[in-house]
User: Fold these one by one.
Assistant:
Number 1:
Amino acid sequence: MALARADLESLLRVRQLDRTLTTALPQVDPGDERALAPSGISALDARMGGGFPRGQLSELVGLRSSGRTSVLLQTMAAATARGELVALVDALDMLDVGSAAAAGVDLDRLLWIRGHIVTNQGLCRELNQRAIEQAIRAFTLVLQAGNFGLVVFDVAEAPADTVRRLPFTTWLRLQRMVEGSQTACILVGGEPMARSSAGLTLRLTAAADTPSAHGRAGHKFGAKLFDGLEVQARIVRARAREQEEAGVALSTSA
Amino acid sequence: MFSAGSASSAVCSLVAIAQEFSPRYERHRDDLVSIDVSGLTRLLGPARSIGEELRREAAARGVRAHVAVAGTRMAAVLIALASPGLTVIANGEEASALAPLPLALLEKYEVRSTKYESRSDREESAAAARTSDFVLRTSKKWGLRTLGDLASLPTADLVARLGHPAREWQAIARGEDIRPLVPLLEEERFEASLDLEWPIADLEPMSFVLTRLLEPLSTRLERRDRGAAVLHILLRLVTRETTARRLELPSPMRDVRALRTLALLDLEAHPAEAAIDRVTIVIDPTPGRVVQHTLYTRAQPTPEQLSTLLARLGALMGTDRFGAPASVDTDRPGAFAMTPFATEHEGKSRDARAERGEHVGQSPVPSPQSLLSALRRCRQPVPARVAIVDGRPVRVTTDRRGFPGGAVTHCAGPWKTSGEWWVEKSEVRSTKYEGGGSGGSGDSGDGGDRTALSRTSDFVLRTSTPSTPSTRSSPWDRDEWDVSLSDGAVYRVFRDRHADCWFIDAIVD
């Protein structure tokens, strides 16, 4: 089994034996499977070229009920199945542990950091802004510790204006911290926040051509049960400046 | 040196006497100590003077001691057991001095053969006892009466008849040392103190003080192949009070930076009440971790890195806001527990992969395309107004920003769920909406007591943190629906049957 160069250098850095390494960051070979964090969804991984790139900030965006959490939990399950440690900065404390366990996430390998969010903003708008900033600091601490296989920053249900008020340098700083490492970072939100040039954005939308006669497009309702979601996933890569015309169709089951 | 008395206090006295004369001493039994006195001639004089000094010291401590000084440790031990008072044997005359002594003297001495060093202490003692008993009984049958009789036998013939242990017994009878002296090491105390010229009240100068104290301790730990299991920080304040902090470390560590960081984070969370003028650090050592590095598995955070990270997260978020989630054995929707996040995962990773039949480095097979629908749980259920037509919800609205609601395009339900009805209402604490954390467990609950729910505006205004409604079990009884709204989202809503109120419990995403 061939060792990836980046993997070896990362190990040497951990052991503080990297004095002979050059300061230039290694170029990640897209064909190197160890440079990518597979999501565990074969069709999606095939379109992404193997998975989410390690050492880069990637995004998982979409509207509510577009399948973001389902894809995210599957990715976390795949990471823990590989023996990696996963950190989830849950800024709004919305993780459903039952869903995570059902998706196959090894809960012992999941570091769950729960944010403080005031449910009613009103006079507490500043409190929520501070809560997001606190979540960013927790995110930073996790990246500084290093060697997590997957780190997720989840602000999917945060108000868009709260996230937009974060300085743009925040994401640049976080990108610098994760660059060159073996950590895959995923930002989960309602809209794109920031993404590194080598990262990718996975945009999820409800499928418009749901054959089911019941329910809104993308929502599968049977005679008496909610059957799941029909999701369309499109991959946007900044370097190639391209967005796939046809995405990947995914289906969730309740 | 042999104590003729049987008082248990003689044990401590013999050891104390030995410590006064030499750091190299061995305690054979409670009443028998051997001391390496080589090198004391320049201090105390010839061997007889050393012996007399030992007897004087023993007498001063109220111990009747038999002292023997010889060229070999074994000869000195046997002479001390056999002869009262002070006996001095010249170098080279050990065998002749021991020759007239009775063979039964060997029964008084427990021999720990080097051959059994690999066994446990209990097995070692039992094996040695059986061997010595066999050799001595056989020797008596042969008519041997003295150590000289045993020493004069041809060695090869003796070994051929009694086995290899007989060789050691013969060497003892000749006064030869069969193993080197094993000195009794005092338990080393890892402690360092520093008196400050000027009292300090801030953490920044404390960082330098801790580094100065921890560096030599870390070096000593490394020499002894030990790690710190517990870190005690004793701070003497200007008010003459002493504040003690105790940090239990998740894994043995001796890295100065990690220890200093953990200590500073703890002091930051528990600041001293006054300025500090003396800092003492005491470390409880433990054997270090044996870690076998491998380049074939992905690097993971070390226990030191994880410990530091968890300490920093605790200082930032609160110790109850992070950890590893755990499922609980209940039907309560959204129930979970928080457990401490482990700092050691290496062994578990290998074991888990071995159970799956995977080889090191082999990636698991990805799962099929179909996903399970996941929920996003509203830790504090969102109060909602639901319009019902023919028993089915047709419209859901809320006053919560971010939950505009809308017309119900389709719904599925109801599913009736209830539980813990056996919990008496009087046992249920009132809903906690302010401060506090989830502690060791948490669940989403169903919205708390009826009084708060009936006053919706009051419920909303009083909610300050997304804390759990109750830290103890409380009954729930609800009708759940999955509804698809015109805003494009699918929600899990429920009606609390007791309070007759509707809530949004989760978002299907």
Number 2:
Amino acid sequence: MSQAPETDPTKPGSQEAGEAALIDDRTWRRVINGLLVTAVAVLLASALWVSQQAWQTLDQVLVPEFDRDAELVARTVASEIERAEALGIPFEEMRGVEAFLADYLQRHSAIVYIAVTGPDGAVAYAAGAHLEELQAAAAGGALAPLEAASDVGNLERVRNASFPLQHEGRTFARLQVGMDRAYAERQIADIRWDVLIVLIVSLLITFELLVFVVDRNILTPLRLIDRTVREAAAGDWTVRPRSRGRRDEIGHLMGELDGLSRRIGQAYGRIDQGISGLRRIPEQLAVRLERLRRSVRLGFADETAGTIPSRVDARLPLFIFVFAEELSRSFLPLYAETLYLPVGALLPFLGAEPLPRDVVIGLPIVVFMAFVALATPFGGTWVARFGARRVFLAGAVPAAIGYAGTAAALSVYDLLVWRCLAAVGYAVVTIAAQGYLAATAEPGQRARAMAVFVAAVTTAVICGSAIGAVLADRLGYRATFVVSTALVVIAALVAASYMHEPRRDTAPVKARLREVVRALANPRFAGLILLAAIPAKIALTGFLFYLTPLFLDSLDVSQPAIGRTIMLYGVFMLIGTQIGAWLGDRGGRYASLVALGGLLTGIALIAVTTVDPRDGMAVAVGVFGLAQGIASAPMLALLPVLCPAEARLYGETSLVSLLRLSERVGSVIGPLLAATMIATTGYNATIAVIGGLSVVTAMLFYPLAMRIGPAGRQASGDTTA
Amino acid sequence: MTGTGDLRLFRPTRRSLLAGLAAGALLPAAGIGRARAAEPPYRIFMITWRGWEDASQGFKDYLDRRGLRTELIVRDAGTSRDKVAEIVQEAIETRPDLVYTWGTTTALTAFGTVGAPDPATQITDIPSVFTIVSDPVGSGIVEAFDAPRANLTGTLYIAPVETQLRTIHAYGAFETLGAVYNPQESNARLTIDQVQALAERDGFSLIAEPVGLDAEGKPDPASIPDKVRAVKDQGAEWLYIPPDSFLNVNRDLLTDSAAAIGLPSFAGAENFIRDSHGLLGLVSRYYNVGQFTGYLAEQILVDGRSPSEIPIESLDRFSLLINMQTAHRLGFYPPMSMLTIAEFIEA
């Protein structure tokens, strides 16, 4: 971190620019990037080595495990056939052998066939699939000879285990058990993926923690020293009592600075005293003393002077909090499905079911999205009134209750109540974190502060959805919600210990929502919302949040694999965002990029209905994430282009808030639309319709975009948020 | 009452009393130290038909293992109906605590048919149990399995006919079933009627041949081989042997004639397979049936239950018997699925 003070002090510019020169954002980013690279390099190297070891062990442990499975089955089957032989039943006259083998086959999914080869080596009795491979091997003499011991060998698609069948020490036939090589490989691949996911997630979490620790222990104190020195240079020699609490070098340095301040104060006091003893003050001295008196501030500083609120203080608790919510991303509809209860079972007098089952299962997502939308404006008001830290802590309360209730839910109906609470908590906490980040940002750096917010949320989305699925697979749904509850409590504890209430004077005057809503009357703004923002959210909640877990589960895809698929959305959205920002900065064709996002989404969704969804869904979700990422920054950049008057009147931030709020209509519609369609037409048709909607709206949006043409340079400033 | 704890232990297994499992392992433990020394011994009057065999032994062993002090008065009829009548008179006069009868004829002679017993010659007021009666309802001993008489209940030892037919099917499917039976035995006739009903329902044909009668009007053993050949000639794929005392006595002749002409045979009674040349049997082991009957006796004597409260039941599980010698002779081997569950009788 020695590079921090090396920042060029000769940088020209005003006082303000100079003020940020020592520990400005570039420095911060450089330190963090250096950290990231180092941490990633070291962790990746060690983790790859560990994974490599684990993978090798897998081969050594799991493959023999499959062989053992086959042997176990073989032993049971063999003993029966040997019994028949012992009873004197001639080998070629054994009856019902095929049905008997088929019965065993049915109970072991990893085994594709069980067969018996006779003394001549030919297949005498067999049940199962891929038998042609065995027959070919038997005809080609590739199998172990009659008298050989147990033997395992690979055929094309089958791993064949061969066991001698004996009576009184004489081998009279051989049992052949075929295992699906693909099955074994799938199992191993699944475990490898889990290892990889845990690796990535621990890497990201480590990074978050590193950022937090470095910022708290190095960057913030350096900033504090920087500020203190700078303020001293400007004549502020007040003593900052808070700053001496630390026991490290930085605390020591701050103590020294404080001592210096105190000594200067004492020296000044002595001068003051000495002067008061003089009868006549020389004019020249009086003028100099007066100048000194005017140029310095002495005495004691106020309470907040010894601290600098850092955005990182909000980043870690926000990360943990969002992580808690995302844990259930890949299985919430599946959990709701297990809790489903027909309304008729509760209220028999109602008669017919008011809602189809699929819709009821989608309601927890719908309710969550709706309550996030409803609570967000209140959250904003509360942050303005009570401060971000207090609102963050207050929001954690309903969230924790919500998750605990979700973990213990009795039916899908009380689950709705718990999800409401969680939604209110989520809305309030995220808005508080945003408020905190905005308030701690240096003037003109609000976009970067919002980038911190987006980064924390996206990292949490990626980690949470993947690790949540692994947790659910190993511990169960309810236990995973218990983990969420614990994480919310931890987030609140971290926030309580590290978040300082920032000075609120920096909060800009925000336009009232009631007024900003008038922007909706601008047809171009309304067009952006209706034809781009809302369809995107419909696809997000309807396709990804609701349909994907249910669909993949119906295809017998494992829970961790569902989590991985959903994680891909976050990963590719991150990549897409970079591409979108880059392309937007290059060509400024924001509207085209937004249309491209919708088009790409639609094509991915429609395409997946024509291929095997087991593999296709992952690709579709990845492309979907990429498309959404590409469109996200240009969509915000479009705002001042589409409605320059409103942007000037209310401020861009207000327009962004309005966009975020109104697109939530799509979040609520998404699961409802998908659920209703699934109930009537099935998964594939539903995916196609959501994709079609995306294509059609993008096509309608495009003429609008063409009419505007390439956006001017004026909008390129705020593309990263 | 010390018995209830033991009963709870025993109840789950009683219906599935299999081989010596319950008798050998569980029961002695339950019975240890439970000898009811203070109570006078229960006087049980046992009427057997053809001597002391497995069912009676199972009955006695059960009561002994349960620690009941009993005084057994054993009378054997020597397969004579008149002798049974004499023994019944003795029972009526001596008034034991419980009467036990073995076999259909014994039970019919001792208790008469339902609704028409004669108190002078038949037992109407002494608690009684019967066993080894193949069809107590068909033969009129009781009205229904769940409607025992006031003083009489008992156990079944024959598997339901439908189950028997399913078992035959599992060994080797058939479309035509043959049967030879004694027309003078109600057991046999009733069972053949049941098979006929199922044949109509399930769409297979039954060829039933009554054995011939001799000059005195008695069933003639010499006619058996011809009758067996007759059913085979009419296309029968299996020979079904109903519960029938006459056939039981002549079981070797019957099963041997079938095996000799390549006709596999099935019986619901043990002897035809275990001690003869029948191929396949679904049977209750007499010993187990005897134990089950002992359990009924215990409920009546110790727990004071009325026989009218104890329905007539069979054991839940039956033994699958396969005579491997006959299988070899026929070249007709059991399917793999039966190997784990069957008991094989080898030479």
